[in-house]
Queue: 4 jobs
Job 1
Amino acid sequence: MPKAKYIPSLLSLFRQYGYDGATLSKISTATGLGKASLYHHFPGGKDDMVAAVLAAANDWLQDNVLKLLEGSGSPHERLQQMCDHIDELYAGGAHPCVLARLQTGTGQPVAHAQTKTLIATWSQAIATVLVAAGLDETLAQQRGQDALIAVQGALMVSQAIDDTALFRRTIQQLPQQLLRPA
């Protein structure tokens, strides 16, 4: 079996428990693989599993966000499509972000470089759309970062207060907020 088959289970585990909480026992149960089989597919152990999950996250970002932002349509339409996909990814604010979960604990050094690249790429893609909409480059860069802060902040707060309405409201308002005049 190719290891790609196990990525959804690993994503779910790392999303729920983070690096430290996703024990080999939990991973084995979720994937149906014994310890020897886990190391056969992921010779570097959890570090390889994290790398595979982050590679899948990068692929998802490329296919479901970056292509939309680089595509056709008005800046508002492209930003709205991005928000629709982000809303779907996080199940309307119910699912935590695997990138955020992997930035804490002993897994942080493993995930940091890939997470940093994903965030920078996403932020820059938003900024490019905002420049195309007529915003100044510096302001567009700031708003690209602000967009990710809004998404991640709303996700965290929604989960903390057990109310996904905050996340959904943030996602719905984001295109207008990003495109507002300086």
Job 2
Amino acid sequence: MAKERPGRLLRWLFRAPVWLYRSRLGFLFGSRFLMIEHRGRKSGRLYRTVVEVVGATGSGGQRFVVSGFGPKADWYRNLEAGGLVAIWLGSRRCEATARFLGPGEAAEIMARYETEHPKAAAVLQRELGLSYDGTEAGRLDLMRRIPMVGLRPDC
């Protein structure tokens, strides 16, 4: 099972890239990360979350991201509630639409990510406390626990 929430130090480390994106320095992360702007489902407050891109369909196409802390992650729940405002690709802010992938499609994208970035995939799984045996059935189970979202920029 994915960890419920990151600890205080990990939360601080996760927040540091937000400051860089807001300073128009998001290009430092290349195409491997993006920042999501989303509205709180209860508060309506604007939030920003930097996530790793695990797949993409061309330079102007859809970017795929996973909710490493599961379907209960606040940013994921805010997107489910229709709270997506925009995404930041490098130093560009773009309106976007979100699409929630099923486990089968997500498993295919994750398989490509594991092939292209084996070390990063291993670190991601270890740091998030995910157990996974590398099989297709195991990957499908993994994608039931850490849902994937496709984000399509409109810019």
Job 3
Amino acid sequence: MSHLEFGGDESFATAPERLFATLTDLDTLAGTIPDLVSSERPDPQTLKCVVKPRFSFLRASLRLTISLTDVVPPHSALMHIAGQGIGASIEISSSLNIEPEGAGSRLHWAATIERTGGLMATVPAGLMKGAADQVIRQAWQQVRVRLGELT
């Protein structure tokens, strides 16, 4: 599968500093991951977790390692996600950039599926994109709940 790219802009009523702190706090991030089974923090820049996604093309659990790099508060950060499961692997890189917007913030984010292996490599791009879009929507909703913008 060739690289799949995702991205967009999200507006928040929250100030950039608070939004950045929320998006780069790996403990908070763990609480926004759909289908999370468990998580641990081996160091301040890394989150290791297990997810059991409810995708028709993947029934096994995935062990994810999420690493933050190039953190420039309250503006930008990079994240690398490596996932391993029985017969499946995936690597994703993502970036976030936050700018003030009125009393709130505007987030520009981008993510690229860099590599897939095993069963994940056989999944058609349209199916992978649909599944990713669903997870992304759920995650943004959870971020908004954590910020108090949704109840």
Job 4
Amino acid sequence: MILLDPTSIIKTVGYLGVFAIIFAESGLLVGFFLPGDSLLFTAGFLASQGVLHLWILIPIVFVAAVIGDSTGYSIGKKLGPKIFTRKDSFLFRKSHLHQANEFFQKHGGKTIVLARFVPVVRTFVPVLAGVGLMKYRTFLSYNVIGGALWAIGLTLGGYFLGRIIPNADKYLLPLVAVIIVISILPGVVHVLRSASNRAKIISYIKK
């Protein structure tokens, strides 16, 4: 399915689509489900195969990541505490917001950088920063650093892997699967740390 295949997504939507996906996943509340990590890695890999141009791709993903986070900050700044009282919907879960809030409280300002590498959390953390936890000048500095490490780092990782390994296209899907597993692992660990969550999971399995 195209929705599960980053290669098909990129070939279908092109540079503009890649920009839109990274932008939405970085700061729009409805973008938490988008495949940011795997998309960046795959885009870099495709650049190594001549499908995309690396020096066009790099600024696109970096700018999308930075502007996306800044947009999330603006959303938080405008809506403030109202976000926490918003009702759950198909594209919004307060549990995601609280998860990001716990992450923010634990790691402080460096959360803006660290959250880049944690799916779902990276979508909601900029919003929390805008709610009132951080001045924009401070936020922006972390935003730029995090955007560079995440967007450029993963893209270059895919690019150099594609250049170094012969017939790397044979290993692309397994590599993407590994990236997805690694990216969701922190969230799984966070859930399993809670005794109540473990009890709910065990109860559900026994049904």
